[in-house]
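The instructor's notes for this session suggest beginning with a concrete chain rather than abstract definitions. Hand out the sequence below and ask the class to guess, before any prediction is shown, which regions might be ordered.
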Amino acid sequence: MARIVVLGSLNVDLVVTVPRLPHPGETVLGDGLRSYPGGKGANQAVAAARLGGQVAMVGRVGNDNFGAGLIENLDVNHVDSSGVEHDSAMPTGAALIYVEAGGQNMIAVAPGANGTVGPMDAERAVSRLVAGDVLVLQLEIPISVIAHAAVVARQAGAFVLLNAAPAQRLDPGLLSRLDALVVNEREANALVDHEDPASMAAALRTLGPKLVIVTLGPSGSVFCDETGVHRVEPFDVESIDSTGAGDAFMGALAVGIARRLETKAAVRFGNAAGAAATSSVGAQAALPRLDDLRQRFGLDLSSSEH
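After discussion, reveal the predicted structure:
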């Protein structure tokens, strides 16, 4: 199986559960404050490792207790943390998360050390890759670094996988260098003016990515490749907290790509991981393991490899 390198963010997630999400200017009383390891980059690295991937993380944390805890958490989850640098000038990134009773959430992020990730970090990430390996990117580090990493990773023959989250506009030059782009409907709307998910996926593919996947939460996902647009059905679960679902999907997709699964099988694997992640509270705390998906959904990845 190919290796997976994640270049991205590491945050501490500070979570409060509320009866409903507050409106602007409104205070809503919730339960006790809980902290979890997070950040889209670290979440996706842990997700992939728990699902059998050989994973390394590259990024930055502050020289503080939060940062030390995030690195320890990577190690516990069998993610190679040697590529995570300590930044003495900035604190570890933090996410403030409200979760309502039905599982929906609101998130605000203070980037901290994630904002100082630079071109040398991109070079360090790509130096760990050989042809056929997978580079996983998100948008919680500077976009210029992501663009640079995509260029050098393609030059190295790696598969470049971008989760365009949080939602923002992207330069066409970056999109043209992607092997795969993953977005939810809100993130897709930041890039193309379409309402139907299938149309979104098709329109996004014309911008350059070889594969585009639009995730639809409890409705599954659609993807567009050279053969057209395809829908992949969801897995039925009782959702408690959707915080880590997108990251679970990304980790599973990266593993599927690293294992050379057919596209539909890799996306289905992502759907299963995303669904399973909504059945528990927290981002990394809820990320499933391979045995969880086998027992819950009867998935057998070995039969899908070629």
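Then share the key points. The two ends are 12 Å apart (CA to CA). The chain has a mean pLDDT of 94.
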